[in-house]
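Lab notes, practical 5.
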Amino acid sequence: MGFVLTFLSVIFNEYYIPSEPIKFIFEILLLILYSIPRIIGRIISYVYFPPRPKNVVGKLILITGTARGNGRELAIQFHRLGAKIVCVDKDEVGNNETVDRIKAEGGQAMGFKVNITDKEQVMMMHAAVKDQMGPVDILVNNAGIIETTLFANPEADDTISEIVNTNLLGQIWVIREILPSMLERNSGHIVTISSMTSFKALPLLFTYSATKCALNGMMESLTRELKLMKSNVVTTTVCPYFIANCPDKSKRRILRLPEIPIEDACALIIEGILRNERVFTVPDYDFYALPLINFLPEDLQYMVGDIVYTNIEPTPDEKKVIKKYTKFAEMNKPAQIPLFAPCL
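Output from the prediction step:
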């Protein structure tokens, strides 16, 4: 053992050397041998014997951000699968319209006007839900704000705070409120709607992308904590591409690949949730394509970005800021050093 440590210390810095190095190497080799047949079997079973979706008939599903867009569509599609729906949104008028549409189709739904960034409102809402409809079986954290923010824009402070509070802190409050009841029953499913920008961020969306990256980390940590407690509560993180859910925002998106129709996107989201998938993208092939792109050298990544472009049109105020600092960049452009100096 001493010889091994001495040999490794010569080759590597000490902080690269794990404790019990021989055991560590043996465990890595064992993991590789164990993984190969499991991976092959997983691929075969996924392609030829995909998991059957779970039944949500009679289950209570709480969805945030149901006044419009993805939240409304998810609520309606889940209702059509036989679930009871709790609609949560700070827009009472739009939220009630969603509830009325579900009831008009003969479904069970109840709406709550809640600002999820307010912990007290979240607690009061959950107490009312348990009293009037029972325990939540599936929580879908869908509420979120997607607005552009430019780092150099001095007017963006309020928008930044609103996005962070809603997209991240709001989800934390909702999960922390509902999770204990699921743990006590040893049953439940927590879903968060993240974004593909959590894998590949875009200019003008730094705050939105930051919150979605944070959500991915939050859900990974939650999943590991549930495993620590040996709980049967399930987690799912959904990372969709741009969805055609708001015409005003669609006008500012310059995309090589078109937005996904909202009905199709929500159907794919529900399909993944019902199969208990832990992390997936919509469309699903991007889950494998994005890590491969990130593996490329930086200049090639930009080439891919130029081919499969996803750009956002800046607002007039943002254009002024960009133009202002572009002018400074051009004025202070470093002198070009010739590649080959002339021979003297």
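Observations recorded by the TA: The chain is about 55% helix and 15% strand. Residues 67 and 95 are 4 Å apart (CA to CA).
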